[in-house]
Amino acid sequence: MANTLYNGATCRIPLRDESLAFSRHVSRSLSFLLKTRAGKQSYAFAVKASSHSDFDVDLSLSPRVNAVKPSKTVAISDHATALFQAGVPVIRLAAGEPDFDTPAPIAEAGINAIREGYTRYTPNAGTMELRQAICRKLKEENGISYTPDQVVVSNGAKQSIAQAVLAVCSPGDEVIIPAPFWVSYPEMARLADATPVILPTLISDNFLLDPKLLESKITERSRLLILCSPSNPTGSVYPKELLEEIARIVAKHPRLLVLSDEIYEHIIYAPATHTSFASLPGMWDRTLTVNGFSKAFAMTGWRLGYIAGPKHFVAACGKIQSQFTSGASSIAQKAAVAALGLGHAGGEAVSTMVKAFRERRDFLVKSFREIDGVKISEPQGAFYLFLDFSFYYGREAEGFGKIEDSESLCRYLLDVGQVYSFNGFKDFSNSDI
Length: 433
Known about the structure:
By secondary structure, the protein is α/β, with parallel strands linked by helices.
């Protein structure tokens, strides 16, 4: 591990039922890896271009598209799909979603919306019924007050984040992102012609941002700090005291805003508690709070999220949405109202899921700690484990070749262990800064 940069081979493991078998498969695979020495296997990919016209076509793309890095996991995902279709029993843990059904009262609300003909366009920012329910939730659960015109409902929290970045960032601005991070954050910054500035964290610090490092990296171009707590992919939860330190630094820089991604707020394990950044003194005017329904309420396919913040910024997000997608699904919005009606923090339906996630976390943490060379920071929230397998770098595997980095480790575990869960793997090297 480097002094200032987390440089391990890492992967994100969702806490699903299949995960309980996962640690056994990985353990066998890594034990086999420790014992083998053999030659390399190469992977070749060919692209064939063909022409269907005698006319010349300008094939140039927007600089924004060219600025976005292609996903390193696409080839691995395709390989996993091919194996699965060929009948290989691949354990697939790649999707960042609960393996529970949407709670029955929420599903029934969606079904009733269809039966009652509630299938037309809604206002661009979302129905008044839902935005009022969101305002009540944020006041009662998060201690932050908004009015419906300070909330925009979107097709998922991902859309809310992308629109926020586009709304506040100008070419040349900097977006500060603690690493490890959800892979979409820096690419959203690039799409806005902004520059992602990656701040490394240490596994020994539970992957929490060092305020002194943050302060040293803020410049006159710093426009947005993205915080995700509980974190995807690490499961780290920012304690209130640390957030207060960060808030004091943010307060010194008038241009700096904070995007607080709180999509995992209800999936949290005591004694950890969630603090909304906008609830801290002086931070309401500086914070864009993003949340949604996909994770805690097992509603990933319903595609519904929202952003809340000062009207000036949220209205800009709404303007972008009006030209991109318009309003979110009317059916999903009715279901979301029912979700917010389940009780504090989602009531019994959500607490039952969280209990299961915690049991899985405890089992997997114990299991992985028994595997030689694996480093782990025990997650306090979300439903992932973020594991460091860098101990296995440089080793040769029979019939495969050398394990060079996290990407080749993922390929090895897929081919030998028949485990695919690595859509979030990362190596945090200097090239990422």
